Amino acid sequence: MCLKGEHVMKKRLSAFLSVALAMLMAVTGAFFMPVKAVAATEITFEGKATDKTTADTLYLQTSGGTVEIKVDSNTDTSEAKFIFKGDKVTAECYRGDDEYWHASKLKGGNKSENADVDKGKSSTVRGKIAKGTTSSKIYLKTNSGTMEIKIDESTDLSKVRYLVLDQKVEIVCARGSDAYMHAISVANSEGSGSMSTINAKGTEISGKVVKGTTTSNLILKTSDGTKEYVLDVATDATECRVLIPDEHITAFYYKGKDDKNHISKLINDDDSCASKVETDSNTNAVVSGRVTSETTEEILFLELSNGVMQIKLDSSTNFSRCPVIVHNTNLKVECERGNDGYYHAKSIIVG
What we know:
- This protein is mainly beta.
- Helices cover 9% and strands 48% of the residues.
- The strands form five sheets. It has a six-stranded mixed sheet with strand order 15-14-13-18-19-16, with no helix packed on it. Strands 1-2-3-6-5 form a five-stranded mixed β-barrel. A five-stranded mixed β-barrel has the order 7-8-9-12-11.
């Protein structure tokens, strides 16, 4: 009987030890078995914007270093329309399929003052965001100088993600009750894939206009050397009316029956014409002069007998008798004063 009892006790002890061992293995396994780490897919960064920030990428200096954050069409920038070097920004981010951090929402300073603005006398200006710009005032570098334009709470900024230094923009503005120009709306004046290719036949090429270019012969300095192309009645110059030395353009060309390269379309890469404004027919005048090198796609600088006159070229200017404007050409220009204070060309004739 004693041996039998001893045998039972051993079986019970063995069972107890088995259970204890199993529990120990379960506990220690939690510490020693490999665990797959799950990376965080959402995070919020706080820091200051660096001077590397562009319209598509925010570089944020945080306590842990500089973070590169992509900004796209899905980013909510309604609370951060102005981002310049040193500005404090909070970025709510997620990890994208490209392994970059993408901002879902940006927050930053965005305060401005209001004033009564005469929107009935608005004008459109184009240029680059210059140094000194803040959330309440834009310094815009244009072809005719730097403009100071105030931002109001009512300013429409829906067509820009946010504004950064050297960004090209188009601003509709008008005079306010405080005597300052105020922005009614701000939009990007350039965008990826926005270049028109209507009437673009043949091979694409880019370069700078070279001195010696005429209304019938384009001389272009490209990465492959300096080349010449024929300009004729079939050339579409609606997006590049001015061919001044050192101007950067994109052109499309094809081989003509005369075995020469002919231009099918010209596009100005750096500038565009001025916007159409209301003009006063009572100020109609015809002036004659020589085209100077300061001329751009937006403003014609015409040397007259009594000085140099600035005349805006806009979407309503008739170029039928002068398809393109080149340096040193003599022109006859019909113009009228616009509500933006400039004379605007109604029509242009060579000679």
